[in-house]
């Protein structure tokens, strides 16, 4: 679809930033719209077949929907009941979960009310039924026979019946006591051989939930503060981050070893058996943390020694990126809008997925109970729905990349910054919607094509875990790794293709080829900026994670008598990293867009009248200083010198 339409002219064609706009990759936009129509058909089909009613109101093991009058189904006993007064689904054994098939292995009944207190005997179950008319045993058993019928143990709920409450909007009776959910977690985490360890971990999370929420909020605040620092003190940001990370890593390592020594003394004190076990778990965790922090600190120092000579390049580029955020403050909020859009789509996707779980015709399973299954070609709707999750999610992320690229391109190629549009972000969104949705759809589809086989291989690897031989395991991991690397490379190329489209309004393949040519011509600069720039942003993420984790260690230290630290700290650190990544990825995106604009500027402009540079003065000063230093060092004719040659006249004229 136009991949090679301009192959012979793209290298000769001069770029004309923001001058002409035209629609790009229209066939791909039509294909994406048709795909979304298919997603809508799946949702409509599931609702039309009654899945929505079965999902919201719930249904029993005989196919009856609770809270309404049902139609008799041939061959199925207890179907076609009038359950108008019985609006809640009650499971006879709610904690018996089949994790493989993702369902509760228990008879489900429609009842008038959920038991709000624990029922220990069949007499209590009978009294509950007589008091409010809510029969918790099978339909064919009358309440008066609960304590007399010999089959009551099979037809009545498992004793004791836990206290339960209806789930809002979904009319299911769910146990109130979390011990039932702890059993779910034990079944999910198969690598824990001692269930008491898992119980202590869950207890630690529940006990420390206020601290966990506070630390998550702290990571959000730290990320916002770091973005403010990037805006206003970008010139010294690299040095500040370097010093803070060095001090943070040294301080964190020292504190961990100090806490380990302190915990060692605490273990030697007179403790109860439970306290001693928790203290030993904490001591072992602290030792792992301290050793890991020490190794990380040593590696960090070595990397900084290697990269110290290229810090000046990062400072110049970060300074310009800081100016972009000053002129375009709404860029900071892009992660929020993207996250909000993803949450809305994921909520819709999960809702339709739940609809699909109750879609189809009633059939009897091996136990003689009713299940709803889709027969024929329509059963492949699951796969279509799964592809939709990946493609549309990537489409939303690509829209963010195109929006940021369009806003930064507008900033860079506007000579007088006071002539910028009132809201460059909204102007970029308008160009995206009017002209380039097809390009975004095509780029996101390419990423989807790589993600799907990687996810399939990961699923196969998880299913064959422990069964395949060493050679097959190695080949699977190698394929997964190669697909991951390919996905990262394509993502980086896609982002630069979106920038090229935002500049010159060309289709995806032409933009990708033009951007690739520019990147290859500036290979040394790409390596330097991606290495040093990404590393500095990574240090920012490390700073936020370490600060949040250190605060967590200090706060959780006051609960060492009854809390295992491992799981709360892992939750907090993962959340802190995700928050920092969301914010700093926008900054990383701005730096990449600025670099491509800078490379195009140096290639097609030389500072002469009519071909003046668009770039910021600090970039011209940096390139001129680099050129002079290389001449003084006698390396002016090297590869880097050839890259900087177009800047000579422009730098001198400025």
- The proportion of strand residues reads under 5%
Largest sheet: 2 strands, antiparallel
Radius of gyration: 31 Å
Strand elements, count: 8
First-last Cα distance: 44 Å
Q: Low-confidence segments, ≥5 residues, pLDDT <50?
A: 1-11, 184-199, 635-654
Structural class by secondary-structure content:
mainly alpha
Helix content: 55-70%
Transmembrane segments: 26-48, 211-230, 236-260, 286-306, 312-332, 339-360, 380-413, 535-556, 562-584
Region (Disordered): 630-654
Subcellular location: Cell membrane; Membrane
Protein name: Choline transporter-like protein
Structure description:
Its main location: membrane. It holds the Pfam family Choline_transpo. It is a multi-pass membrane protein. The protein is mainly α and 654 residues long. Helices cover 64% and strands 4% of the residues. It has 20 helices and 8 strands. The protein has helices spanning 26-48, 51-57, 122-132, 152-155, 179-188, 195-207, 209-232, 237-267, 273-307, 311-327, 334-357, 381-412, 424-463, 470-504, 508-521, 523-556, 566-604, 617-632, 639-644, 648-653, and strands at residues 88-91, 97-98, 103-104, 108-111, 164-166, 173-175, 361-364, 370-373. A two-stranded antiparallel ribbon has the order 1-4. The protein has a two-stranded antiparallel ribbon with strand order 2-3. It has a two-stranded antiparallel sheet with strand order 5-6. α1 (26-48) packs across α12, α7 (209-232) runs antiparallel to α16 and α12 (381-412) packs antiparallel against α13. The longest helix is centred in the last third of the chain and has 40 residues, at 424-463. The two termini are 44 Å apart. Residues 1-11, 184-199 and 635-654 have low confidence and may be disordered.
């Amino acid at each position: 679809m136009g991949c090679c339409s301009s192959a012979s002219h793209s290298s000769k064609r001069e770029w004309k930033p923001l001058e002409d706009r035209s629609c790009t990759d229209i066939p791909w936009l039509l294909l994406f719209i048709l795909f979304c129509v298919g997603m809508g058909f799946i949702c409509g089909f599931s609702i039309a077949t009654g899945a929505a009613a079965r999902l919201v109101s719930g249904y029993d093991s005989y196919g009856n929907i609770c809270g309404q009058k049902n139609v008799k189904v041939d061959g199925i006993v207890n179907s076609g009941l009038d359950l108008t007064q019985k609006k809640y689904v009650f499971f006879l054994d709610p904690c018996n979960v089949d994790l493989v098939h993702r369902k509760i292995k228990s008879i489900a009944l429609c009842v008038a009310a959920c038991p709000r207190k624990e029922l220990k005997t069949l007499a209590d179950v009978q009294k509950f039924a007589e008091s409010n008319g809510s029969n918790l045993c099978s339909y064919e058993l009358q309440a008066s026979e609960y304590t007399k019928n010999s089959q009551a143990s099979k037809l009545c709920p498992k004793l004791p019946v836990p206290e339960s409450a209806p789930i809002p909007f979904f009319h299911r009776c769910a146990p109130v006591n979390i011990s039932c959910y702890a059993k779910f977690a034990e079944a999910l985490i198969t690598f824990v051989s001692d269930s008491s360890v898992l119980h202590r971990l869950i207890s630690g999370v529940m006990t420390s939930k206020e601290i966990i929420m506070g630390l998550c909020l702290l990571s959000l605040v730290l990320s916002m503060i770091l973005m403010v620092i990037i805006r206003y003190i970008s010139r010294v940001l690299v040095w500040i981050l370097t010093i803070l990370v060095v001090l943070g890593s040294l301080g964190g390592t020292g504190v961990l070893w100090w806490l380990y020594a302190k915990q060692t003394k605490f273990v030697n004190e007179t403790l109860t058996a439970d306290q001693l076990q928790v203290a030993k778990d904490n001591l072992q965790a602290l030792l792992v943390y301290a050793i890991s922090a020490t190794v990380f600190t040593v590696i960090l120092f070595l990397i900084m020694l290697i990269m110290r000579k290229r810090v000046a390049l990062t400072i110049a580029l970060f300074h310009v990126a800081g100016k972009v955020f000053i002129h375009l403050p709404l860029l900071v909020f892009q992660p929020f809008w993207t996250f909000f859009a993803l949450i809305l789509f994921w909520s819709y996707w999960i809702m339709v997925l739940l609809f699909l779980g109750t879609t189809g015709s009633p059939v009897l399973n091996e136990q003689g109970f009713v299940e709803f299954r889709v027969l024929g070609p329509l059963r492949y709707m699951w796969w279509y729905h799964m592809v939709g999750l990946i493609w549309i999610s990537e489409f939303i992320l690509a829209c963010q990349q195109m929006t940021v690229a369009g806003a930064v391109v507008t900033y860079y190629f506007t000579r007088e910054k006071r002539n910028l549009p009132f809201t460059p972000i909204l102007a970029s969104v308008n160009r995206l919607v009017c002209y380039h949705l097809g390009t975004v759809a095509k780029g996101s589809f390419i990423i989807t094509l790589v993600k799907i086989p990687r996810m399939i291989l990961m699923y196969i690897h998880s299913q064959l875990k422990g069964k395949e031989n060493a050679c097959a395991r190695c080949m699977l991991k190698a394929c997964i790794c190669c697909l991951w690397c390919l996905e990262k490379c394509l993502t980086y190329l896609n982002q630069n293709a979106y920038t090229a489209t935002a500049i010159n309004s060309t289709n995806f393949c032409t933009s990708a080829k033009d951007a690739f040519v520019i990147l290859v011509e500036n290979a040394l600069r790409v390596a330097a900026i991606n290495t040093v720039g990404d590393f500095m942003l990574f240090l920012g993420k490390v700073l936020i994670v370490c600060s949040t984790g250190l605060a967590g260690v200090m706060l959780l230290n006051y609960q060492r008598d009854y809390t295992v630290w491992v799981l709360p700290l892992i939750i907090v650190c993962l959340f802190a990293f995700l928050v920092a990544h969301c914010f700093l990825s926008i900054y990383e995106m701005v730096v990449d867009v600025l670099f491509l604009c800078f490379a195009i500027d140096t290639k097609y402009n030389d500072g002469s009248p009519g071909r003046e540079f668009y770039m910021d003065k600090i970039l011209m000063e940096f390139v001129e200083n680099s050129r002079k230093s290389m001449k003084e060092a006698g390396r002016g004719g090297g590869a880097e010198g050839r890259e900087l040659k177009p800047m000579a006249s422009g730098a001198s004229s400025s």
